[in-house]
Design brief:
mainly alpha
């Protein structure tokens, strides 16, 4: 009797796993998709419109006030109290 109960519980477990997997596949299928050409065009437009301070050859020199990667101003910025 114990062997039959174990086989039944194993098949129930397999059925539950397959049902969960099937549900995940349905959710994946329902996910909105865009074409690769649209995604690449969107990425190109973003890269062309968003300045990157690490590429001065493309965007030109950056003023020291606007450069977040530039060296800190010289001199001590400390305040002693």
């Amino acid at each position: 009797m114990s062997g039959r109960v174990q086989k039944q519980s194993m098949s129930e477990l397999k059925l539950r796993r397959l049902t969960e997997h099937n549900q995940r596949l349905r959710e994946d299928l329902a996910r909105p998709r865009i074409r690769v050409s649209e995604a690449s065009r969107s990425l190109i437009n973003y890269c062309k419109s968003t300045p990157d301070h690490l590429i001065p050859s493309v965007w030109g020199p950056v003023s020291k006030a606007d450069d977040p990667f530039g060296p800190p101003p010289t001199g001590c910025q400390c305040v002693v109290m």
